[in-house]
């Protein structure tokens, strides 16, 4: 997978009001590393996310602030995952006056609510509650560019994982209608047509649902055979390295859960799955 990823610099100006600073934590699931964004054009900026607390990120942030002759007024945290919140402690040591905002905040943090607006010179950010990847997930629309910081609901490479598929699909539909231009993702390069990528994500999730249903029907045509999650994964993700199958299994469980809630599949006591009888004919 790493060979397929575009090389991204540690620090890159993406527009007049947005500088991306990589978290210094490349990996199988973080891609080139967690994207953090310094937003605004004046002496007081807004930071989106903090990486996971790597010295390389802090060094990049410090040098960027010096070059920009700027400080960080506030930091907006997209969600609770460690690779987005792990640098908060280092940030506050560098900039003790920075106010940390997060939906479902921890102690000493301020809350972010759906529709809340954050302003600094050259940037107006509106927060939107978009759960799915996590239950506290927020995205931010930059009015001056009609662009969105999509965090981990939409990535610059590949597809995203999620905790709740139904909520995730609802959030993708909401996000698609909120902007018309770029997407600045939580990992990977900028997406020049963000809404088109979101539409692609929605289509991909629908396709995965159909693949699961097709697999459940595949043995004898009537869907009576019980399937384990990993048996389904091995069919659908046959071209994916087996080391990634456990991660894929989480998504399949979410799909099965959604289909069960819709009455389309049944979950047996032996932790196996099959088509619901009304859908197996």
Automatic annotation (TrEMBL):
Q: Which cofactor does it need?
A: Zn(2+)
Q: What InterPro entries has UniProt attached to this entry? A: LACTB2-like_MBL-fold, LACTB2_WH, Metallo-B-lactamas, RibonucZ/Hydroxyglut_hydro, Sec-metab_biosynth-thioest, WH-like_DNA-bd_sf
Against Pfam families, the record matches this protein to: Lactamase_B, WHD_BLACT
List the keywords (alphabetical).
Hydrolase, Metal-binding, Zinc
GO function terms (MF aspect): hydrolase activity; metal ion binding
Q: Does the keyword Transport apply?
A: no
- Answer yes or no on keyword Zinc: yes
GO terms under biological process: secondary metabolite biosynthetic process
What domain of life?
Eukaryota
- Specify the Metallo-beta-lactamase domain's residue ranges: 33-187
Q: Give the protein family.
A: Belongs to the metallo-beta-lactamase superfamily. Glyoxalase II family.
What this protein is called in its record is Beta-lactamase-like protein
Q: What species does this protein belong to?
A: Emericellopsis atlantica
């Amino acid at each position: 997978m790493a060979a397929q990823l575009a090389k991204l610099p540690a620090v890159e100006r993406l527009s007049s009001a947005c500088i991306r600073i990589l978290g210094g934590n490349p990996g199988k699931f973080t891609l080139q590393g967690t994207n953090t964004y310094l937003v605004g054009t004046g002496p007081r900026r807004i930071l989106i996310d903090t990486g996971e607390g790597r010295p390389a990120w802090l060094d990049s942030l410090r040098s960027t602030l010096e070059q920009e002759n700027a400080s960080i007024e506030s930091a907006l945290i997209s969600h609770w995952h460690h690779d987005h919140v792990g640098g908060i402690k280092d940030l506050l040591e560098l900039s003790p006056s920075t106010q940390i905002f997060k939906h479902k905040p921890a102690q000493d943090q301020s809350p972010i609510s759906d529709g809340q607006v954050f302003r600094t010179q050259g940037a107006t950010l509106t927060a939107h509650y978009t759960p799915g990847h996590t239950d506290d997930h927020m995205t931010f629309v930059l009015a001056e560019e009609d662009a969105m910081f999509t965090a981990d609901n939409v990535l610059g490479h590949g597809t995203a994982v999620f905790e709740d598929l139904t909520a995730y699909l609802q959030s993708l539909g909401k996000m698609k209608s909120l902007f018309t231009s770029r997407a600045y993702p939580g990992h990977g390069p900028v997406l020049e047509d963000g809404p088109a990528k979101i539409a692609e994500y929605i289509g991909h999730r629908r396709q995965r649902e159909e693949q699961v249903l097709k697999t459940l029907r595949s043995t004898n045509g009537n869907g009576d055979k019980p399937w384990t999650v990993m048996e389904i994964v091995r069919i659908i993700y046959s071209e994916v390295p087996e080391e990634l199958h456990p991660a894929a299994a989480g998504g399949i469980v979410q799909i099965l859960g959604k289909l069960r809630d819709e009455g389309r599949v049944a979950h047996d006591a032996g932790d196996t799955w099959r088509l619901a009888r009304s859908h197996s004919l």
